[in-house]
From TrEMBL:
Residues 1-21 are annotated as: Disordered. SUPFAM superfamilies: Metallo-dependent phosphatases (SSF56300). Residues 30-222 form the Calcineurin-like phosphoesterase domain. InterPro entries: Ap4A_hydrolase, Calcineurin-like_PHP, Metallo-depent_PP-like. Residues 1-13 have a biased composition (Basic and acidic residues). It comes from Rhizobium mesosinicum. This is Serine/threonine protein phosphatase.
Length: 258
């Protein structure tokens, strides 16, 4: 992350509205968590098809938890957001959590992050998915302010409103679902939104015990990272073609990928 983007994050914390946090008991609900999508609608659709097949004989309404980072890097950010705004597959509910890429997109829209810093997040692919040319636009507009205003006006307000509405955490009695992780030094009900969406080393390298199983994405790997008290489902879907899923049901965890 660039120094200027880090500074913009510090400044934007004061301006951001706190995100919702959802609490529910999933003991009797077959629950599927899906890792970072990053513009790969094709893989998301394949993952949902696999989930529907897997859940065919499971009882009641099922739940899909999306772990954030739906946009940037891959070719179909706009299509992924449209898909997630539509109803979940029949027989399922869906909770979509906010990822750091969604938060930085809003920071750009709200004037906290610059165009150049936003581009370092893979946002050029996002703009292309909305029919905008990130290579040509800076040549058309004489000032950065004009460029920013055009982009902000061009992105669908319904998509922006959807992204603004995303919760930052799903807390259940035995499992907490977040995008990036938690600060192990802080009680769950006092976690900062910024940590839940951006944290890495203080979470991944901490020797402190975690309060419950933490299911997250954000830190990419070749395979799901299975640890005693955390599970990372980010498997670089935009590049690897592997979108990973975890099913939670009756105290068991089952992993599969596209």
């Amino acid at each position: 992350m660039s120094d200027s983007l880090a500074r913009s994050r510090e400044g934007s914390k004061a301006g951001r509205q706190p995100r919702p946090r959802v609490s529910m008991d999933i003991a009797d609900i077959p629950t599927y968590a899906i890792g970072d999508v990053h513009g790969r609608l094709d893989l998301l659709q394949k993952a949902e098809e696999a989930i529907v097949r897997d859940a065919e004989h499971l009882p009641g309404t099922k739940l899909i938890v999306m772990l954030g980072d739906y946009i940037d890097r891959g070719p179909q950010s706009a299509h992924v957001i449209s898909h997630l705004m539509d109803p979940a597959p029949e027989g399922f509910e869906r909770i979509c959590l906010a990822g750091n890429h969604e938060i930085v997109m809003l920071d750009y829209i709200d004037g906290w992050a610059s165009y150049d810093d936003w581009m370092t997040m893979g946002a050029a692919e996002l703009l292309r998915s909305y029919g905008l040319d990130p290579d040509h636009l800076p040549l058309v507009f004489r000032s950065g302010a004009q460029l920013d205003a055009f982009i902000r006006q061009s992105l669908p307000h319904t998509h922006i409103d959807f992204i603004r509405s995303l919760p930052i955490m799903l807390d259940t009695p035995n499992v907490v679902f977040v995008h990036a992780g938690i600060d192990p030094r802080v009680p769950l009900d006092e976690q900062a939104d910024d940590d839940l969406a951006f944290i890495r080393q203080r979470f991944l390298e901490s020797p402190l015990p975690l309060p419950k199983l933490v299911v997250h994405g954000h830190t990419p790997g070749d395979q799901p990272d299975v640890q005693p008290m955390r599970l990372n489902l980010d498997t670089r879907a935009f590049k690897s073609g592997r979108l990973s899923v975890a099913r939670f049901w009756q105290g068991q965890v089952y992993l599969f990928s596209t």
